Amino acid sequence: MMHAHATPTLGGDCLVELAAETVQMTEQQTGAPVTGARTRVRHWVLVAVATAAVIAGALAVDPAQGVARPTRPAAPSALPAAAAPDPARALLPLDCGPFPTTVALSFGAVLDGRPSTVVAAHCAAENGTPPDGVYLLTPGQDGRPQISATLVRPTEGLTVTELKLRSDGTVTARAKGYSSDDVPRYAPDLTVLLSWHRQAGEWLRSRATEPAGTA
Questions:
Q1: What is the rounded CA–CA span in Å between residue 106 and residue 120?
Q2: For 23-139, where are the E strands, in sequence order?
């Protein structure tokens, strides 16, 4: 009856010693160094040692770290409207005179660990479409949403048509705009692409324009 024998596992040091013994035995039997064999064995030794080092590094555990930690912060997540600050209760800095304000677009999200709402709003004038302001709302101390950042001011003359949050936390917007004051306000000739990303505690804005109607 044949008995199965367990094959010993060789570490990096054992592999090096075995390779060295193979070279010595070959030289002793032939009386001369075997150049090709030595070259191949040395190559094999280097590969074996490198592999052992990689495996050892992959399996090493730092007791001080305990549990592995993610290298990137968690991505912002969407938030239901019922759980986000209500833009209808916010005092938006729009100079509307006798007219009320209208929320054109908004979305809720957890930004910087806080429930937030990004809202585009304008005055509800009887004629035309007044420009939008875009604001970031967070919960205030009195229960009323407060403005944490102004992303677009109404004085920029933009009408926001799209407002979104990307998975990396970047806020994006598409708006209609004007190339000059001579362009009639009822015929915007620019499409304005805006984006904001968080950096060093501030929202940094990027802006690009293209002719209106460009896909």
A1: 6
A2: 77-79, 101-111, 114-123, 133-138
